[in-house]
Amino acid sequence: MPQRLIRKLEHFVRLSGGDKLALQGLAQKVRAVGAHEDIIREGDNPLHVNLILEGWACRYKQLADGRRQIISFFVPGDLCDPHVFVLRQMDHSIGSLTPLRFAQIPREALLGVTDRHPRITRALWWETLVTAAVQREWTVNIGQRSALERMAHLLCELFIRLRCVGLSEGNSCPLPVTQTELADATGLTSVHVNRTLQEMRSAGLIVLRSKTLTIPDPAALQKVALFDADYLHLEHEGAHLDANEPEELPNGSTPGTSGAAWTHGGGGSGTQHG
Amino acid sequence: MPQRLIRKLEHFVRLSGGDKLALQGLAQKVRAVGAHEDIIREGDNPLHVNLILEGWACRYKQLADGRRQIISFFVPGDLCDPHVFVLRQMDHSIGSLTPLRFAQIPREALLGVTDRHPRITRALWWETLVTAAVQREWTVNIGQRSALERMAHLLCELFIRLRCVGLSEGNSCPLPVTQTELADATGLTSVHVNRTLQEMRSAGLIVLRSKTLTIPDPAALQKVALFDADYLHLEHEGAHLDANEPEELPNGSTPGTSGAAWTHGGGGSGTQHG
DNA sequence: ACACGGATTTCACACAGGTGAATGCGCGGA
DNA sequence: TCCGCGCATTCACCTGTGTGAAATCCGTGT
């Protein structure tokens, strides 16, 4: 049941009933693994595309001496590299962060669906390009932002991505990762991540308890993060994402209300050099 | 004359005469700009794909307060985002670093060629995926490596990429960027880039004079960089890249010889956590 | 209820890399 | 040949983040 994926893709294209049915069909072979297991290892020859159904995973790479960088987070609805087949072998690993359920989609199944459903093709393109944009933003994040800004930025991104697949509730969302993992993702140490989170807490920027993140004042957090959601390329083709997207959770619970806007800032100009 | 692009793509697929001709046809509208000019600005609606013919450019993003991160370098033969059309607007800018000649390829021209030439489609896929892999490696580089390792890694990457398009000569290649630009790319300050380069020089790792980089002992540089070329996904489909690729420069000059190997290391294993 | 173990928190201290500014070099233009 | 200017280089000093280790906390299983 790739509900999350469908929900996410509909931010970009309107899918027909047939499109959705076709997407449903992709999640045949479902696998489950515990936390902290590898799904694909660097050097492996990828055989299928993985679709995250439940739980979190990450893409990571480890240097010869053990230092590890988490390159991206995968949350439900995320597709790991729809097009890896072109390359011979993986240049990074993908591992679970929490217990995980995911679908292994065979290459042919994916090709079959995209052949017959141009809207899905377009939507997967969008997903691919957004993934690339996120990767670029991470480069900026790690390269230029201070620890505080960096953590804030990461949390903004994760919150929005989760909200897009219906996993937020009001200003809260799950954050089922350890501080060590946040450290590996931001290029900081776990000690400093801790300091930084404390600082954010005492500034009232976040509430973080029992793996749940709450953002009392989104505008404030965005501000310290220098966050601009444009790179996520939401609001497209009619599926206009309201600042405060109505949350129809699958189980029908009522979402908390949030007056704060997650603005998609106007285009900055900025001349190069001078 | 997209010779560089063709040469690069042939590292992955064997192109027929017809394929090459089709690629030639893409570079109709050629533009030239001086150094430090923007080609595309963040927020723009991209109208064509740009193919770098001569000179260097970069993708960059600037924070509200002026900090700038160079997200990737473009060298001759590089294609800027073959698939941007799917998205509505640019989330970053592309600017020249040196005087630049580039071809503006209209969307339709590209689509026409890929429709009729499946090998080109495959090759462009490869190019796209390698670009993504490079982006991921930059995340690792900035997130985990020390200044020295980081600079070394960047130089290794640039050298290999230039060699792939026939722009190296023996162990040397052009490096027409300022230390400030290297700083923006590595997330360091120009002062510290200077220190780092000095250190590399006095360790005999590099020779860098008048915008020309020479790597006396590639193995040594790779070692301090913890560099593993796997992520560039060379050596594919028969087009076996020898460790010391024969350099048939277009102008027929004889390349310097280099016994040193730019090894494509065997698959590391590495269990997650333990 | 208890005990275990991973996760968080705190501490004292070290250092890589940042800051701001001054100096000097090299190269293109007239 | 000289000038001017951007770039590289150097300096003295500072600080954000890393290090290593110890001390708690907390959730989970028994």
Automatic annotation (TrEMBL), chains A, B:
Q: Where is the composition biased (Gly residues)?
A: 264-274
Q: Which GO terms describe its molecular function?
A: DNA binding
Keywords from UniProt, A to Z, are: DNA-binding, Transcription, Transcription regulation
Gene3D superfamilies in alphabetical order = Jelly Rolls, Winged helix-like DNA-binding domain superfamily/Winged helix DNA-binding domain
Q: Secretion signal: which residues?
A: none
Q: Which SUPFAM superfamilies match?
A: cAMP-binding domain-like, Winged helix' DNA-binding domain
The name this protein goes by in its record = HTH crp-type domain-containing protein
Q: Which organism is it from?
A: Methylobacterium gregans
